Amino acid sequence: MRHVLLLALLAAACGPKAPMGPTDAEQREKIASSMHAALLEEIRALKTAAQDLKGHAPVRAGYGWELPADADAIAAMKADWARARTAYEHIEGAIAPLFPELDAALDERYDGFLEGLNGMGDPDAFDGEGVIGMHAVERILWSDSIPPGVTRVESTLPGYRPAAWPQTEAEARDFKEKLVTQLIADVQKLETQWSPTQIDLAGAFQGLKDLMVEQREKVNNASNDLEESRYSQATMRDLRDNLDGTRTIYAIFQPWLKTKTIGDRTGTDIDARITAGFATIEAAYAEVLGDAIPAPPAMWSAEMPKAEHLDTPFGRLYTKVREATDASTPGSVVAEMGEAGVLMGFPGL
């Protein structure tokens, strides 16, 4: 009988074991594959929108852009631009640190380009050289309605030239065949280079974290009339799209994070706090109606804001975003994303 029991115990010990979960290497491979597929869809949406914009760009013999003749075409291009902008803001967090040169070509702002041109400016806004990318196109499309504060600030920049629609057939053709074509070429370059083997997961996750840090900067820049989508007054939409894109990419890391534990820190707890942080930012954005950031109060100072300035729609938005994204505040979404990066073994987070 004793031999029978011993054999039974040995059989149990040597029998089939419960399947182990995916290894870290397998998790990383799965995340890279899923991220590649998700972002490739957005890159292709960006390319399609840019191609549609080119298709809608009018070129009429002997004329630049005029109203009412080109009203429908200009409206269509603005809608195309908005679609392109949303697609890029969805992927900005992951793309920017992995492809910094393409990020600059696609998304640099007018003041950033002028700084790089060392005060020489861009004498031809339509030739696809110098000032390029989405904001160069935006600046032309909305040149008839740029807020006065934006013009006042930009006019002090070395190399500044006023924004304008194409005034001649040649300029209209260059806008279509050079500036917008260059935008499409840069998007196609990004599409070509975007492959699972090019994805640095640590860098991509750091980019998501950095983008959440930048939400406060993007809000505060409105007080200087140097906000991101300043010509179309659509920076609030940019912020919402940034958040949506960050959530989508973070969700790819989420299952792996939940399996991790170091000491008393569990991925499940950290994930819950990150998810709550995203919800807090979303609620702050939902309080603002429309695509534009609320008008900042006169003499606003992010360093020493006055109580009456904080008690305005802009001040309340800034305060809520600052609290949610302050890396030095325990429990903020940025602080918790740093903790998540540590759990997943990403150096530097």
| Radius of gyration of CA atoms, rounded to a whole number | 25 Å
Shape: globular
Biggest sheet architecture: 2 strands, antiparallel
> Cα distance, first to last residue?
60 Å
What percentage of amino acids are in beta strands? under 5%
Measured as a percent range, the helix fraction is: 55-70%
Q: Average pLDDT across residues?
A: 91
Strand order of the largest sheet: 1-2
Count the E strands. Answer: 2
Describe this structure in words.
- The structure is a single chain.
- By secondary structure, the protein is mostly helical.
- It has two domains: 25-199, no CATH class; 200-349.
- Helix content is 63%, strand content 1%.
- It has a two-stranded antiparallel sheet with strand order 1-2.
- Helix 3 (71-98) packs antiparallel against helix 6 (134-141) and helix 9 (201-220) runs antiparallel to helix 13.
- It is globular, with a radius of gyration of 25 Å.
- The model is unreliable at 1-19 (pLDDT under 50).
Summary keywords:
mainly alpha, 2 domains, single chain, 14 helices, 349 residues, globular
Summarize the topology.
Blueprint: H1 2-14, H2 24-56, H3 71-98, H4 100-107, H5 110-116, H6 134-141, H7 148-154, H8 169-193, H9 201-220, H10 235-257, E1 261-262, E2 265-266, H11 267-286, H12 307-310, H13 313-325, H14 333-343
Antiparallel strand pairs: 1-2
Helix pairs in contact: 2-3, 2-8, 2-10, 3-4, 3-6, 3-9, 3-10, 9-10, 9-13, 9-14, 10-11, 11-13, 11-14
Q: What's this entry about, in short?
A:
This protein has 349 residues and is an all-alpha fold.
